[in-house]
Specification:
CATH class of the domain at 412-630: Alpha Beta
CATH superfamily of the domain at 412-630: GAF domain
Number of helices: 18
Radius of gyration: 42 Å
Strand order of the largest sheet: 12-11-10-15-14-13
Number of strands: 20
CATH topology of the domain at 412-630: Beta-Lactamase
Structural class: alpha+beta
Largest sheet: 6 strands, antiparallel
Helix content: 40-55%
Distance between the termini: 119 Å
Shape: flat
């Protein structure tokens, strides 16, 4: 009777939560499934948007390359200038057309290239039928005079374009244009290119992440789709699409997502993205039945699990009813065996009632007897472990002292901080078995901790941590005290590092020079709780020795700077004692000769002239010696181009920057001119390396009439020259001063996000060419 009641109640109690969990799980599965479908479509849309934008940018970059590569700027600018002046020369048009045809043959995207002057007339085209057409009233032409632009062939544009239009019906293709400017930076016209949109169709038709019913297409503001787009299962081409998602994206000029009916009236889940550069909407859709297929499967699985849970509840209820009577029998048997002397016997405690309390009493009694017997053995084991820990501590302390002595011997012989710090961190890591050892030094100008040495990977060096940010090293540098995190997962200020995945504990010791913190010594361990107070003392001692070594290195650098200053003083003294004295003697002799001539006494004029010539020759020899000492020896050996190329090979190319030097015309330059241009080039390259974050750098030298032109160009982040002048930087001022000393002019063309061009125009004599 009791067993039947218990069985019924146990089944009811188990069934109620199963039903509730099943309903809740189904609702959560639906919400999560909808969100997952939207997230997946958002990812597909973002990938396709990136591919479309990349295709457009590559098309525009090829046009820019066509207008700026090799001799193209001269041909293009001349052809447009003749068109703007209303002149036409068939032989020159043929020459320019061959240049454009050669680029089209090399291009994998562009099928046609053409040039349009300011009046909108096509002056040159690889397709001769286009020459002479006028596009002045077209929006794409007007926009192309200001900035690069691209127009895709939507049905609305193709149907509204007349004969001679950029998007005529017999030319369903993408049209891209870029402005062409002259040397005065004024627009001269545009270069246009026609390209097939097959790559766009392949990008839109690529079905990764869309399943069997997914589709992606482009729609312009007139609800017309991209020419050649198929939206029906039978492959028929659609011309106009009106859906809730597309209308919302066009009206609000933004993206969105939701569930709605597609152009064929089928329920879909879709994501729309507004592409402002193309004036179109990218729509990605998938049938609702396929998108929610996983939700229905999850609901079915939950139903099966619920039924299985009911069956298990019945079985568990039968087991529970038996568990009430079985412990009583087990307790009686246990009491009998204990009374017989079996102290290892224990009663099973399965309930918290009177039977369970009796079983615990039996177990407590037998446990006390066993504890009396085993207490002596435990004490012996504890004493043994204590002795072992003491021996380990003594060995570790001896190792710390040995490492400290070794480190002290090594750092006294190394005065180069870039050699010293890597050797120090590697020595500490090998001696103590740490996972990683690092040294950060404080840059007070930028208020940043800069990673100067790491035992893990030299590529990690020069990583920076802001003093106003988070991190164990930042906390140690700000407080001036050691910071220990024996479990980094529980330390709130820990900054995880993907390069150091095995870090489990970290210790940072501030490096102090007097009352100032100059950096931190950072130690990582791959085990939790690895550091003790003895480790803190030992690492702090090592940090003190590192500070002494760094200070020695700084003192050594100061001594070298003093040596340089002494050398400059020596050169100044030599100038004063040699050249200056000789020039002063020339002045005295010249004045004496003038007085003799004024007095009518010219007997000693030859003697005066001879002495003046000797003194002048001596001064010239001494001046040439001093100039040779000051002039960079690389210029003497390699010349300007060779010296710049060696600089690019030694610095820029090793940092992964694509750099080259080009000399269009062979020119023999005087040594003073080469030296001035060399220092201007170095200053421009140094500025680009420090501030621009460029990927490409080019140094180009050519002749322009009677001037030598030196141009240093990069594709970095650029800057505002006016703002730089207001800040009063010495670099730009020194370059302009050198250009003026050579009788030239230095100009800087830059803007934020548009790279930088530094150009020097220096007059050269015919003998130098």
């Amino acid at each position: 009777m009791i067993r039947r009641r218990l069985l019924v109640w146990f089944v009811v109690i188990a069934l109620l939560p199963v039903i509730g969990v099943g309903i809740g799980t189904s609702l959560v599965s639906y919400v999560n499934g909808r969100q997952q479908s939207i997230d997946r479509l958002e990812s597909v849309a973002a990938r396709k948007e990136l591919a479309i934008q990349g295709w457009v940018e590559l098309l525009q970059q090829e046009l820019l390359a066509a207008s700026q590569t090799d001799c193209s700027p001269k041909f293009v600018n001349t052809a447009l200038r003749l068109g703007n002046e209303g002149k036409a020369y068939d032989w020159y048009t043929t020459l320019v057309r061959k240049q454009l045809e050669g680029f089209v043959q090399r291009s994998s995207r562009i099928d046609e290239l053409f040039l349009v002057d300011l009046r909108g007339d096509v002056v040159v085209s690889t397709d001769r039928e286009r020459e002479g057409h006028t596009y002045y009233n077209e929006d794409l032409f007007q926009r192309g005079l200001r900035e690069p632009g691209t127009q895709l062939p939507f049905h609305s544009l193709a149907s509204s374009s007349g004969e001679g239009s950029l998007l005529a019906e017999d030319r369903i293709a993408a049209i891209a244009v870029v402005p062409v400017v002259g040397q005065d930076q004024q627009p001269m016209g545009i270069m246009g290119g026609r390209a097939s949109v097959e790559d766009l169709h392949r990008t839109l038709d690529e079905g990764t992440g869309l399943g069997a019913t997914g589709k992606a297409y482009l729609v312009d503001t007139k609800y017309s789709v991209l020419a050649g787009t198929s939206l029906t299962p039978e492959g028929e081409e659609a011309f106009a699409v009106h859906t809730e998602g597309i209308e919302s994206a066009i009206l609000e000029a933004t993206g969105g997502s939701g569930v709605y009916d597609d152009a064929l009236g089928r329920p879909v889940i879709g994501v729309s993205r507004w592409l402002s550069s193309l004036g179109a909407v990218l729509s990605v859709e998938q049938d609702l039945s396929e998108a929610f297929r996983a939700v229905w499967v999850t609901t079915g699985v939950n139903l099966v699990i619920a039924l299985a849970a009911v069956a298990l509840a019945v079985v568990a209820s039968l087991s529970m009813t038996r568990s009430i009577a079985d412990p009583i029998v087990d307790l009686a048997d246990t009491a009998t065996q204990i009374s017989g002397g079996d102290l290892e016997r224990t009663a099973r405690v399965e309930r918290q009632d009177e039977i369970g309390a009796l079983a615990e009493a039996f177990n407590s009694m037998t446990a006390q007897l066993r504890d009396l017997i085993s207490s002596l053995e435990n004490r012996v084991e504890e004493r043994t472990h204590a002795l072992q820990r003491a021996n380990i501590a003594l060995e570790q302390r001896a190792l710390q002292l040995q490492t400290s002595a070794q480190l002290g011997r090594e750092i006294t012989s190394i005065l180069d901080i870039d050699i010293l710090l890597p050797q120090v961190v590697e020595t500490i890591r090998e001696a103590f078995g740490y996972y990683v050892v690092q040294v950060y030094l404080l840059d007070r100008d930028t208020q940043e901790l800069v990673l100067r040495a790491s035992s893990q990977d030299r590529r990690l060096e020069h990583r920076k941590l802001k003093l106003d940010g988070a991190g164990i090293n930042v906390a140690a540098a700000r407080s001036g005290e050691a910071v220990l995190a024996n479990d980094v997962s529980r330390y709130p200020g820990f900054l995880p590092d993907r390069q150091l995945p095995e870090t489990r504990s970290e210790l940072s010791i501030p490096l102090r020079l007097g009352n100032q913190v100059i950096g931190t010594l950072d130690v990582h361990n791959a085990q939790v709780g690895a550091f003790t107070e003895e480790d803190i003392v030992a690492v702090r001692s090592l940090g003190d020795q590192i500070v002494v070594a760094i200070e020695n290195a700084h003192l050594y650098d100061q001594s070298r700077e003093l040596a340089v200053l002494e050398e400059r003083t020596r050169l100044a003294r030599d100038l004063h004692d040699s050249v200056t004295q000789s020039l002063y003697s020339l002045v005295l002799l010249t004045e004496g000769w003038r007085r003799l001539l004024s007095a009518g006494t010219g007997a000693q004029s030859e003697d005066y002239l001879g002495r003046i010539g000797e003194i002048a020759k001596q001064a010239l020899r001494e001046m040439r010696v001093l100039i040779h000492e000051l002039r960079p020896p690389m210029l003497e050996q390699e010349g300007l181009v060779g010296a710049v190329r060696k600089r690019l090979d030694a610095v820029e190319k090793r940092l992964g920057i694509e750099a080259r030097v080009v000399m269009d015309d062979l020119v023999e330059l005087p040594g003073s001119l080469e030296e001035g241009l060399y220092w201007i080039t170095l200053e421009a390259l140094n500025n680009s390396l420090k501030h621009a974050r460029a990927k490409h750098v080019q140094v180009r030298i050519w002749l322009d009439d009677e001037n030598l032109v030196l141009e240093i160009a990069d594709d970095g982040q650029g800057f505002s020259p006016d703002a730089a002048k207001q800040r009063g930087g010495l670099g730009l001022a020194s370059m302009q001063e050198r250009a003026r000393e050579m009788g030239g002019v230095l100009t800087i063309q830059s803007a934020p996000g548009q790279g930088t061009k530094v150009r020097v125009n220096v007059p050269v004599s015919p003998a130098d060419k």
